[in-house]
Design a protein that fits this description.
- It is a single chain.
- The chain is α+β, with helices and mostly antiparallel strands and 451 residues long.
- It has two domains: 2-206, PmbA/TldD fold (2-Layer Sandwich); 221-451, no CATH class.
- The chain contains ten helices and 21 strands.
- The protein has helices at 2-25, 84-90, 121-128, 130-141, 201-217, 235-248, 251-256, 317-323, 350-355, 408-413, and strands at residues 30-46, 49-67, 70-78, 148-164, 169-185, 188-196, 228-233, 277-279, 302-306, 309-310, 341-343, 359-363, 366-373, 378-383, 387-391, 394-398, 402-407, 415-418, 423-427, 430-436, 439-448.
- The strands form three sheets. Strands 7, 12, 13, 14, 15, 16, 17, 18 and 21 form a nine-stranded mixed β-sheet that branches. A six-stranded antiparallel β-sheet has the order 3-2-1-4-5-6. A six-stranded mixed β-sheet has the order 10-9-8-11-20-19, covered by helices on one side.
- A hairpin with a 2-residue loop joins strand 9 and strand 10 (309-310).
């Protein structure tokens, strides 16, 4: 088994190097080629039953092409490694018609600190047992008095390789799972997520129990008045908002005015001192763990916000050159981005956070997060699934949907306390895997949800 995998890694890396050779022979001065070969299994739950089990293979090729400070990026998918070189030659662009890039910087030379990740044995096992895992999750859900269950388990394993004209020749294996489940009872519902590079059956069971408990507790929601509330945001909601903050920490988004950090200085106080936010792609538990970025630099942990103070933006070599700093190893071929976000936890249990609230709400999930003004951080998001009204330190009833309409800087400046347990969240509203606790925020503005 291991010999087959080593051979496959070698084939992928050799193909990557061959594509690079073809590109350089075509007359480009610099290039980076990355090939990602993966296989995925997805098991779905629909109408409380195991539904479709799908599996598929993918090969994705990304090429960075540079000549005379002109840059082109080409991405495409193919069904086989053997066809990659042939397709790459067909898709080489006429770069001479492109304007010089104000962000041009030479491709960095490789550094020796790269330590590749591998596929954890628990992922290999889960890949073969997806249907059994779904059956077990359904059994957990129906230990509660619920009406209906829906959800999805996706497990992906693959090989990622990179070769550059400056001498990088890198390859690593990866494997991770993503699970989310939504449970219904009466007029209520609950949803939760679990993900990571190490599969644990107890994490699936925990996510299922949380979703089921929220569904049961919210089965008879009542309308409440919108207004200014103290709000406890669950990890599902915090994951969504921290994804927005993580993307805004990209130096390119800052330069383009798509960020609340536009015009702010490194070292400036921007959030509550309770907030320490890091991007940590070297966490072996993280779904987003990766050992090298899209320019071939070894990844590292970067603290974006420390005790409320802006410590760094996220850079590739191009934005770093423009800002006069070093790359933070967050390169995408076009824009720097976070890999895996982590909010430093506090000391409170969820029950203790609730006890701190005199008049507030507990928001367990959200969707339709939209920015009205990126620099000011004006945004709105709609609560989804279980929502609870809190009075004098205890939950008094389930509530119907509200819309949170506020500004991100004010939200994060008003953070009062954080929970003591981190949850790794990833689903389609949290694209960047995020480790976050429950968070209590004072004086959050809400409006009525009209639909």
């Amino acid at each position: 088994m291991r010999e087959r995998k080593v051979k496959e890694k070698d084939i992928v890396l050799e193909t990557t190097e061959k594509v690079l050779e073809e590109i350089m022979e075509a007359g480009y001065s610099e290039s980076i080629v990355s090939i990602n070969k993966s296989k995925t299994v997805m098991a779905k739950i629909a109408n409380s039953q195991p539904s479709v089990v799908q599996d598929w293979d993918e090969v994705t090729v990304s090429m960075y092409l540079a000549k005379d400070k002109r840059i082109a990026v080409v991405n495409f998918e193919t069904s086989s490694i053997e066809e990659t070189v042939k397709l790459a030659k067909k898709m080489l662009s006429e770069i001479s018609i492109i304007e010089e890039s104000e962000y041009y910087a030479p491709i960095p030379k490789p550094k020796p600190a790269y330590v590749p990740f591998t596929v954890h044995r628990s992922i290999l096992k889960a890949f073969e047992e997806s249907e059994k895992i779904i059956d077990n999750a359904l059994s957990v859900a129906f230990t509660y008095d619920v009406d209906k269950v829906a959800g999805m388990l996706e497990i992906t394993m693959g090989i990622r390789s990179l070769a550059s004209s400056t001498g990088a020749s890198l390859v690593e294996e990866y494997g991770a799972y993503e699970y989310y489940i939504r449970v219904f009872k009466g007029e209520g519902s609950g949803q939760w997520s679990s993900s990571g590079r190490i599969f644990r059956e107890e994490n699936i069971a925990e996510a299922t129990r949380i979703a089921a408990e929220y569904a049961v507790e919210s089965s008879k929601p009542e309308s409440i008045e919108p207004g200014v509330y103290d709000v406890i945001l669950s990890p599902m909601v915090m994951g969504n908002l921290l994804n927005v903050i993580g993307r805004m920490a990209s130096a390119l988004n800052v330069d383009m005015g798509f960020s609340i950090f536009t015009g702010r200085k490194i070292g400036e106080k921007v959030f509550s001192e309770k907030i320490t936010l890091a991007d940590d792609p070297i966490n072996p538990e993280s779904y987003g763990a990766v050992s090298f970025d899209a320019e071939g630099l070894p990844t590292k942990r970067n603290v974006i916000i420390e005790n409320g103070t802006l410590k760094t933006l996220l850079h590739n070599s191009k934005t770093a050159a423009k800002h006069g700093v070093e790359s933070t190893s967050n390169a995408g071929l076009i824009s720097p981005h976070p890999w895996s976000l982590e909010l430093k936890p506090g000391t409170y249990t969820l029950e203790e956070l609730i006890s701190e609230v005199k008049n507030g709400i507990l928001v367990t999930n959200n969707w339709y997060t939209r920015l009205q003004n990126y620099i000011e951080g004006s945004f709105s998001t709609i609560t989804r699934d279980a929502l609870f009204l809190i009075k004098d330190g205890r939950i008094v009833k389930a509530a119907k949907k509200l819309r949170i309409a506020d500004k991100l800087p004010r939200i994060f400046k008003n953070v009062h306390e954080l929970g003591n347990k981190l949850y790794q969240i990833k689903w389609w509203e949290v694209n960047v895997p995020t480790f976050t606790p429950y968070v209590l925020i004072r004086n959050v503005h809400t409006t009525k949800h009209m639909l």
